[in-house]
Amino acid sequence: DGGITQSPKYLFRKEGQNVTLSCEQNLNHDAMYWYRQDPGQGLRLIYYSQIVNDFQKGDIAEGYSVSREKKESFPLTVTSAQKNPTAFYLCASSIPGAYNEQFFGPGTRLTVL
Amino acid sequence: AQSVTQLDSQVPVFEEAPVELRCNYSSSVSVYLFWYVQYPNQGLQLLLKYLSGSTLVESINGFEAEFNKSQTSFHLRKPSVHISDTAEYFCAVSDLSHGAQKLVFGQGTRLTINP
Fold first, then answer.
1. What is the pLDDT of residue A70?
2. Segment A78-112, tens digit of pLDDT
3. Most Cβ neighbours (<10 Å): which of A9, A92, B24, B67?
4. Do B42 and A90 touch (CB under 8 A)?
5. Distance in Å, alpha carbon of B45 to nearest chain A alpha carbon
């Protein structure tokens, strides 16, 4: 079955540690996205990539980093510079086109202790 | 840049009652609109979309939304809700400015169905 996988579902880290969230898709989509979700704030775009080896900052990129070495994979690193990293993180992908319908993974809930 | 406003953060209704979740977007030359649904601790699932053509679009589970260009709205409705409709609903608009292809989301509306 085609889809987007995110692992792990739940992740716990100590303050000051970097952590990498995985996102893999087998939909053959060129574009991939990372969002952060906090209660009452909807989805905020962290980074996006429209093609392999290229990515752009979203609205809240500070304290995060990404790479896009393969079409299928778009890992997100939450660095120690991110002041409030505890959140639900969602990965999505889309076929580049005129309207950009996005398909979402199941999400990773990160808790920093 | 585009923006989306969902006017109600929470909407409680009784089972089998009708519901409307409101969504307004900032105007643009061309616009593509989406409603996504999110069940607890899950990702978002596409509920319905407006790309062109008929201004009334429907989902397979009884929801419908109407694109109103003059009022820049895309409200979601269901004539009779079920307990299983309890979820958070997000309205989104496609932002094609500056060559990017992004979705801009509203803040979400939590729909709670009471028996």
1. 97
2. 998 888 999 999 999 998 765 778 999 999 999 99
3. A92
4. no
5. 7
